[in-house]
Amino acid sequence: MKFSALLASLAIGTTLARPLQEVEATNESGKNSQLLEARGYASVETAQVSQDTYNKLLKYSRLTAISYCVGHITEVLKPFKCISYCSFFPHTELIKSYRDEFNDLSLTSYLAVDHDSKEIYTVLRGSHSVEDWMVDFTVRQESIDNMVWGKNATASQSCQKCKVHKGFLTAYTLTYEKMHNDIEATIAEYPEYSLTITGHSLGAAVALLLGVSMKVNGHNPLVVTYGQPLVGNQEFANWVDTLFFGQTEPNALIDSPERKLYRVTHRGDVVTNVPSWGDYTHASGEVFLDTPVIMPKTSQVKFCQGQNNKKCSDGNLISQKLVMANHAHYFVSQANCLAL
């Protein structure tokens, strides 16, 4: 499967070097220590997830896998049919699917409504095309002052020092412009339904940005990302913590149905640690699949405290035994549709 393979391959060298830099930082003051501090609030605390949370994350991983069926050869058909995991959602209705066209940096995605769980699904596909890779490698940061917000955004909910990956911001902007009217119309049609935004890889990065956008526009989305790369700077990470957890340095070990942000990572997935060569920091909310296999046991899935955690994906990647396929393995294979 092509998505993010190039991104992961080229990132390995810089990412694997990071544990060596961290060893140096324990013995030296100055620049190395400052670089470590820029990585955000650190912890080594973890806690096992409940079976309910495990089932929730498995469910949304199937939805992200379905997004790879939206392409120019395979498709998700109405009411909700595909060659992937659509049969797990028998009372789900496809509202619309969105394909990236040639030289179009918006993301392939789909919008659906689940009448069983009373949810609106906004699902974003990961890197799959040359255009997607162009977005992945546009690593310069840009102020979110240039971010397209909805009409209800307020200045009090802004973050003046927040910067995010320019490529992800471009993908978000173009994707938002395609989808936001349909999302708002679906919310208006089903006001009693909750909103869930999920994505894998590049789609995970854009899902986080879309979740932030919907949050500051008065909605309360559940955001679940899989294999998400680093998206923004320390100020952005802290702002995300405040938006979704109510404070900076939150307790991210609480297993509650009210929780609205899950960043799912997998042992050996290098993509969750890139870009590793700039001022990038993850927000809190990590859930780590602490096993190299595709389908973890409940005991192998754990909440991780902090914006980075050495007992989770931020640990020594050499000791985690890098498995390139693990970027495509989040409870289920994200590659089984093989859309083009």
UniProtKB/TrEMBL annotation:
GO terms of biological process kind: lipid metabolic process
EC number(s) per entry: 3.1.1.3
UniProt-recorded Gene Ontology molecular function terms: triacylglycerol lipase activity
Keyword Hydrolase among UniProt keywords: yes
CDD domains attached to this UniProt entry: Lipase_3
Keyword Zinc in annotation: no
Protein keywords: Hydrolase, Signal
Family annotation (InterPro entries): AB_hydrolase_fold, AB_hydrolase_lip/est, Fungal_lipase-type
Signal peptide range in chain numbering: 1-17
Recorded superkingdom: Eukaryota
Protein name in UniProt: triacylglycerol lipase
Gene behind the chain: LIP2b
